[in-house]
Design a protein that fits this description.
Layout: E1 4-7, H1 8-29, E2 34-36, E3 40-41, E4 44-45, E5 54-55, E6 59-64, E7 67-72, H2 83-108, E8 114-115, E9 118-119, H3 120-141, H4 149-155, E10 167-169, H5 171-197, H6 200-207, E11 212-217, E12 224-226
Parallel strand pairs: 1-11
Antiparallel strand pairs: 2-5, 2-10, 3-4, 5-6, 6-7, 8-9, 11-12
Subcellular location: Membrane
Transmembrane segments: 12-30, 84-108, 120-142, 171-191
Keywords: Membrane, Transmembrane, Transmembrane helix
Length: 229
């Protein structure tokens, strides 16, 4: 019988797992990893981030007749700016794949908390830690590719590994870092979600024959729960 179990900690873990997976996907697809220093146009320097040219892992935004146009510069994997960026994309994609799978599985933990007596929360927490490590490797490889010809032509000839010269880091890079940190937080929260869904109060509700168990507010004396036969 499927028991739908909802607790604060399990719900928080599920929502955060989905958010970090989505954040990493958005960052990966965005062209705003590197922003070129604004150039004067008609005597006016553009200060808005949305008006600045940018370079992503496989796409870029550039100015044409005063308008910003974005598109893919690498039509094939081999056309990516550098070997380091290619490796970074592989690690980031692998990490996102793991996080995406965990995000999907996290929804089903409302009904299924274990498989063959193995806690799904613990398994997902381990996978999230592995995914976080893959993302860290990808993010560390990314700045080593700043010495490529593509980056040098975009940011200036002074560009070198870990030194973007005339460019600055865009929101996509920081979003990827935030998502990575959130991934490790999810890994820690998974253990708390496991504890919450296997508590004595939950077991009591199951023994009473309830199929819906909701423990969203709980104090030391009187847990609040709701259930349906």
């Amino acid at each position: 019988m499927c028991h739908v179990i909802v607790t604060c900690r399990s719900m928080l873990w599920t929502l955060l797992s989905i958010v970090v997976a989505f954040a990493e996907l958005v960052a990966f697809m965005s062209p705003e990893w590197l922003l070129r220093a604004p150039l004067p146009e008609n005597g006016v320097t553009q200060t808005k981030v949305s008006d600045r040219e940018s370079l992503g892992l496989y796409s870029r935004c550039y100015r044409i007749k005063g308008e910003i146009s974005c598109g893919i510069y690498a039509r094939a994997f081999g056309e990516v700016a550098s070997k380091f960026w290619q490796a970074a994309m592989l690690f980031l994609a692998a990490g996102m794949l793991v996080l995406g799978c965990v995000a999907c599985i996290s929804v089903f933990t409302l009904c299924f908390q274990s498989i063959k007596k193995k806690s799904i929360f613990n398994i997902c927490g381990l996978l999230q830690a592995i995914g976080g490590l893959l993302l860290i490797v990808g993010l560390m490889l990314y700045p080593t590719g700043w010495g490529s010809e593509k980056v040098a032509s975009f940011c200036g000839v002074e560009a070198s590994p870990f030194r973007p010269a005339g460019c600055s880091l865009g929101w996509a890079f920081y979003t990827a870092i935030g998502g990575t940190l959130g991934t490790f937080l999810c890994s820690v929260l998974s253990a708390q979600a496991e504890i919450a869904t296997s508590s004595d109060k939950v077991q009591e509700e199951i023994e009473e024959g309830k199929s819906l168990i909701c423990l969203l507010k709980q104090d030391s004396k009187s847990p609040t729960s709701s259930g349906s036969e």
